[in-house]
Amino acid sequence: MDFTLSKKHEMARSLFKEFAENEVKPLAQETDENEQFPEETVKKMAKAGFMGIPVPKEYGGQGCDPLTYVMCVEELSKVCGTTGVIVSAHTSLCIDPIQTYGTEAQKQKYIPDLASGRKLGAFGLTEPGAGTDAQGQQTKAVLDGDEWVINGSKCFITNGKYADVYIVIAVTGVVEKRGRKMKEISAFIVEKGTPGFSFGTKEKKMGIRGSATYELIFEDCRIPKENLLGKQGKGFGIAMHTLDGGRIGIASQALGLAEGALEATIAYVQERKQFGRSIAKFQNTQFQIADMATKVEAAKLLVYKAAMAKATQKVYSVEAAMAKLYAAEVAMEVTTKAVQLHGGYGYIREYDVERMMRDAKITEIYEGTSEVQRMVISGNIIK
Amino acid sequence: MKIVVCVKQVPDTKGGVKFNPDGTLDRGAMLTIMNPDDKAGLEAALRLKDQYGAEVTVLTMGLPKAEEVLREAMAMGADKGILVTDRVLGGADTWATSTTIAGAIRNLDYDLIITGRQAIDGDTAQVGPQISEHLDIPVISYAQDIKIEGDSVIVERQYEDRYHVVKAKMPCLVTALAELNEPRYMTPGGIFDAFEAEITTWGRKNLKDVDDSNLGLNGSPTKIAKASDKVRKGAGEVVTLDPEEAVDYLMGKLKEKHVI
Amino acid sequence: MNIMGLEQYKGVYVFAQQVDNELSGIAFELLGKAKELAKDLDTDVTAVLIGNNVKGLVDELAAFGADKVIVVDDPELEVYRTEPYAHALSSVINEYKPEIVLVGATAIGRDLGPRVSARVATGLTADCTVLEIGDFPLVARPGQEQKHNQLLMTRPAFGGNTIATIACPDNRPQMATVRPGVMQAIDRIEGAKAEVIEYNPGFTPDNKYVEVLEVVKSVVDVVDIMDAKILVSGGRGVGSPENFQILKDLAEVLGGEVSCSRAVVDNGWLPRDLQVGQTGKTVRPQVYFAIGISGAIQHVAGMEESDIIIAINKDETAPIFEVADYGIVGDLNKIVPALTAALKAELN
């Protein structure tokens, strides 16, 4: 067992760090304050190859492993949670299902543009009445000749409106399973600009405020028959497997936020003086920092382990769920403590930890709440 | 077109200079980077590659660890990397360094050689022009723009208060300024490829047409008589005053020193 | 290496840089230093003047201390180009065998110097700030000959963090490029004459002769901060390009100029030729105001020789206070205008 990074992974990390410091950090505050999607940054990330890291070279990707991708999301999130999730949703929730379930023609058509960042991807599963419970889906797709006709809506969609390609989950019929009527669920690829596909409300959020979160509206939206992703009726499995990968991305985002807050706090406590000495000299500070650092390290090991599991295993639901559950809770705890150690300054927007604490909360909620992660984990242990 | 880019691995002074308790520099504690002027030179070569098609070879002289900058250069898009390393080459001044690098370059086909203007650890700006002298080719220093026209290179050569547009027939050597461009980032895939790629390592025996008496510490005409980490001028008075008091204080000092 | 015959090399030579047939300030600075070195060595000072129709500049060089002037005058030398200039200077060296050759560490000298040193196969020490005559090794060591009357060349390296003294004991000439603004010219000697030697080694264009297609002079009105007696220098702490007005007001009342740190140039607030520091200019005014400048070592390297350094910064831990003669912890936005007003009242 070797816990040291290889030289190439170290170099990749130095690249992500340098990019994050130079290109992302200077805009983080503004991105949050103005709730502004960082389009220019996405273009720069495309140029640097960050939009297709774990995608094979033959599809225009970088041909790297999931660990490299995880470090990218981590380093970006250290300085800006918004930028981290843009890459995560694009890569894990849009490219990955096409790569895994798409036909050769679908891969050829969509992946090179997505992996190079010429196009941005998103994933639409959540509905007002169906978040974590996929059986609550209301959006319907009906086959009409050579076209699927989609009707319904999706909400809280990350990269909404800015994305060009959407993976959309919809009900395509009813099947009987063990005597019970179940919704038959399928997955589709829908392109922006398709008639009948429009965007509704942009959500105003507590954190990751630069990330575009939109409602997707389908009104007799007709897409070609061949845009069915995977087999008809396999949509639920596709969505769940996609979320397993997505959770590793969100776990990386959470890890990055925790690390960013920890770094800022370590610097601050050494600078800030109270009662004539730096607050780093107080045992309370020292012990808080020790706990924060230990938890961040534990989270990192779980996240990296999940990345390795994705590289080597067919199924990695438990690893992904554990990584996300723990990293998200650590992110919330560490950013909260970071604000506390900053005192009054931690509560004002000029200080990054204020934003990081708001950004951290979402990691406990999206792509499966912490409660859902516990269900996934326990469900795999207690059978 | 074949381009050779010379790069150097240097300590990163920007990331904060570290000192030992006795006030000397703690070189081991400092991170190393690709010298900024060299990186701009590499970027210029890669842009020529993008624009006209070219094979870009990066060459460095240094300790075996300097291989890192070659991998970095290849992760940015360079095609080949050559590391010149040998114990007998250590301690070289700019004369011996340029002799060594010229000896390595004589093994290569090239149309254009690009070096950085100067390295941030030595700041001499000598090695580029000296290599050109050893190879008997023209040099254009301080390039702020590089273009290719047929068999010639057209360079904006910077001076203090002007620039010259200079045309030289290739083969030619150009020294690049950090202001020349904004170097691209490596790509993640480029990094993975760079670690798969073979790096050519050359020692003394691979240097062409050079004499041992011109290499390494013994072959260096300049000798260090004394080196020390700089002792800074001592601090004077530092006062914390209200603006009014501060003005009175300064007026007093300016009068005392007969400035006014 | 040419160990033999070192004693044939005599005299201190200076490359007298001219641009557009006008001598550069560095030429006079080098002559000033050369005169000191020549005195220690009991020899004379020769200026090497290279250009086209430049003979008219000879008296000016004499007035600033040249005993002899070697003039290489040729149409090929109209505009600076590395090769004909390198050929001119190296031919002079080979012909007249000087023991010391000083070249300015200018955009010309830092190109010409290395090319020439490689051609005449000697060492070159770059960007020197101190030159003196002494022994090498500095202290006699058993088993090693101690050579006397060596040129000891001191230069900062590592972004100004280290300083090294270098000698060139076994090769001649001993060559150095010298940072502009560091050495001092002598007071002008009216009516001084120098012995003039005209020398032309012949110029035959070859592959190394480049073609200058165009000369584009900087359109901005260049203020040379290196000539200013008083500099009011601003850093990132000034906050905005507009706020530099308060520094300009202070400079104006004192008859000085405004300069700045690298951060200001990087932010695009002021042009690069106003930058002080390792990657900018070295200045040594009578008074240097460092306003809102933290004092990174790269900046300090360019201004620490100033006679009086006055720092104003709100951060009491700013390293600039370690080199300042007078440091004030306070708000520059209040102090600077108030000081300007007080000076106005005092001086009127």
Features:
heterotrimer; A: 383 residues; alpha+beta; four-stranded mixed sheet; four-stranded antiparallel sheet; 52% helix; 18% strand; C: 348 residues; alpha/beta; Rossmann fold; 2 domains; seven-stranded parallel sheet; five-stranded parallel sheet; 24% helix
Give an account of the 3D structure:
The complex is a heterotrimer of chains A (383), B (260) and C (348). Chain A has helices at residues 7-33, 39-47, 66-79, 81-101, 104-115, 235-271, 283-312, 317-342, 352-363, 370-381; strands at residues 121-124, 140-144, 147-158, 165-177, 180-191, 197-202, 213-224, 228-229, 273-274, 277-278. With 383 residues, chain A is of the alpha+beta class. In chain A, the strands form 3 sheets. In chain A, strands 1-4-5-8 form a 4-stranded mixed β-sheet. Chain A has a 4-stranded antiparallel β-sheet with strand order 2-3-7-6, with helices on one face. In chain A, helix 4 packs antiparallel against helix 6. The model of chain A has no long low-confidence stretch (mean pLDDT 95). Chain B has one domain (2-214): HUPs (Rossmann fold, 3-Layer(aba) Sandwich). Helices cover 27% and strands 28% of the residues of chain B. In chain B, the strands form 2 sheets. In chain B, strands 9-8-7-10-6-1-4-5-11 form a 9-stranded mixed β-sheet, sandwiched between helices. The model of chain B has no long low-confidence stretch (mean pLDDT 91). Chain C is of the alpha/beta class and 348 residues long. Chain C has 2 domains: 6-198, HUPs (Rossmann fold); 225-347, Rossmann fold. Chain C is built from 8 helices and 18 strands. In chain C, strand 16, helix 7 (297-300) and strand 17 (308-313) form a beta-alpha-beta unit. Chain C is globular, with a radius of gyration of 22 Å. The N and C termini of chain C lie far apart (66 Å). Chains in contact: A-B, B-C. Chains B and C meet through helix 3, helix 4, strand 7, strand 9 and strand 12 of B and helix 3, helix 4, strand 7, strand 9 and strand 10 of C. Strand 13 of chain B pairs parallel with strand 18 (326-329) of chain C.
